[in-house]
Every structure is written in structure tokens, then in C-alpha cells.
């Protein structure tokens, strides 16, 4: 294949752009904030599980307290009813029966109020435990939000660089012969690099000094001949410092 030396030299700019684009892609996929967020994820999930458990326990305790309070109200209503009946009846037998029931209700009320106090204390303890978990979640959420903001900001900067560089690459490629670009893209797809400079006999594609036999063959090639690196497969771009 033939290509003007100036066009071949432009391939180095194209390769530099592709190399930088690959670096930007790698950097975007491997942002340090993303790694930190991944490390925090088990802690986030563990805290969420603790919060769900604590919330469930508290709801159960509050429901139990509500039931006990309802039972107390029922007993108090019966006490009021029986007390009113004692005051209204003149039957000694009825009074004795009502007073016996009132004594039983008083004991029932005492028992319920003791249970109520115990459940209230449990509710208070569970509320404190949930408040602790809430505080831990809020602190962790703050850390996560900060990391997410930093990640998004850094990703935005990288994306801005990528777009600008992609536009430059398109401009460079558009100015080069189609067959040269096709060869460049083919070699880059196969070997990871499409073009490399030859500097003092060393291929920058492989960072290996070429053999004298390879260098002799390259010396025999015309300036507009497109030659390939025998080691890296890249288009070998020759210049004044190639050492030929």
C-alpha cells in the first residue's frame, strides 16, 4: 500500500487519540469513588436489614402496648359501671357480688398496668435502638451521597474530555485516505495498536529494537510505502529520528 509520508505521520496523532480515549474509558469504568461505594454497599445493606428489624420490633411492641391500653380502658369502664350499680342498688346480695367483682377488676387493672409499664419501657428501648440505627444510616447516607457526587463530577469531566477528543479524532481520520484508515483500524483491532513510530531502530509499538534484517528491509522501502512492524503488527511510521 502507498500513502503520503505526511498522512502516515498523521496516524500517530490518530493513535495517540485512540490511546487516550481508551485510557479515559478505563478511568471512567474504574473511578475510585465507584470502588469506595462498592465497598460501602455491604454496610448499607446490613444497616438496612437492622433498620427493618428494629422497625418491625418497634411496631410489634407499639401494637402490644395499644392492646394493653385497650384492655385497661375496658376494665376501667367495667369498674365505673359496677361502681355506679353499687351506688344505685339496695340489695345487699347484689352489693356483695359487685364488690367482689370490683376487687377482681382492681387486681386485673393492677396486672394490666404492670404489663403496660413493662411494654412502655420496651417501646422506649426499641425507639432508642431505632434512633441509633437511623443516625448510623444518616451518617452512612451522607458518605454515600458525597461519594456519588464526587463520582458524577469526575465522570462528567472525563466525559467532556472524551467528547472533545472523539471530535478531534474524527477530524483527523476524515482527512486521511480511506484505505489507510481501513488498514489502521484492522491492525488496531487485531493487535491493539494501529500505528507506531520507529525511533532509533526501536518500534514504539512493541518497544523492541528491530533486527538488522528488518531494518534493512525497511530502508529499501520507498517513503510512501506503508510498512508494518514485524513485532506489533502496527503501521510503522518513519521519521528523521528512525535511525535508518
UniProtKB/TrEMBL annotation:
<feature type="coiled-coil region">
    <location>
        <begin position="58"/>
        <end position="150"/>
    </location>
</feature>
<dbReference type="InterPro" id="IPR056003">
    <property type="entry name" value="CT398_CC_hairpin"/>
</dbReference>
<dbReference type="Pfam" id="PF24481">
    <property type="entry name" value="CT398_CC"/>
</dbReference>
<dbReference type="InterPro" id="IPR052376">
    <property type="entry name" value="Oxidative_Scav/Glycosyltrans"/>
</dbReference>
<protein>
    <recommendedName>
        <fullName>CT398-like coiled coil hairpin domain-containing protein</fullName>
    </recommendedName>
</protein>
<keyword id="KW-0175">Coiled coil</keyword>
<feature type="domain" description="CT398-like coiled coil hairpin">
    <location>
        <begin position="14"/>
        <end position="192"/>
    </location>
</feature>
